[in-house]
Design goal:
Blueprint lengths: L2 H22 L9 H8 L3 H13 L3 E8 L2 E8 L15 E2 L5 H8 L20 H14 L2 E4 L6 E9 L5 E10 L5 H13 L1
Antiparallel strand pairs: 1-2, 1-6, 2-3, 4-5, 5-6
Helix pairs in contact: 2-3, 3-6, 4-5
Amino acid sequence: MSETEVAQNATYRSAERVLTLLKSFDDSRTELGVADIARALSVHKSTASRLAAALERTGETVNLAVPDGADVLNVAEVPSTYILSCSGGWIGRRTRPHAVANGKVLLAYGALSPPRMLERYTPQTITSPGKLASELARVRRDGYAIAVAELEEGLIAVATPVFDPSGACIAALSITGPEYRMPPETLDSLGRLCASA
């Protein structure tokens, strides 16, 4: 098995663990401790803490995404607690990495290579390679990515990396919601909270 195949298999195994963990929550099991999450996912406690904080604090849709070829593949979702939400339909959806927060994380930490073409989805979509490079440098500096109406008007997201025990970025965790509940001026504080957990 090649190094690439090993990395891809490890990524999907990690995503499967997270999906199993997310599915384990139900009416009778509504809580897991950080140590339980870290053990279940084979990640550091700081990563598990960030996952737990994202799930508990926002009430918005939480997605886990992994690299899939040149795209971002959403493999797990915790639906929003709101009636009007960005939940549903994300699992199995592929997106181009330059237009979504979780994709910017995967690009910034080397889990994906920058795309050759930067398609425009909205007027806010980054289509300049230089601007994308600057954005990815900011993601590495701050530890989180933001996408404000870059894939679809009114859709806002903040994402942080998920690292394996060796320190490689294997996935991205994103919190997604409508702009009126996640105004752009609140995203830096949410990103810092997730990145520092």
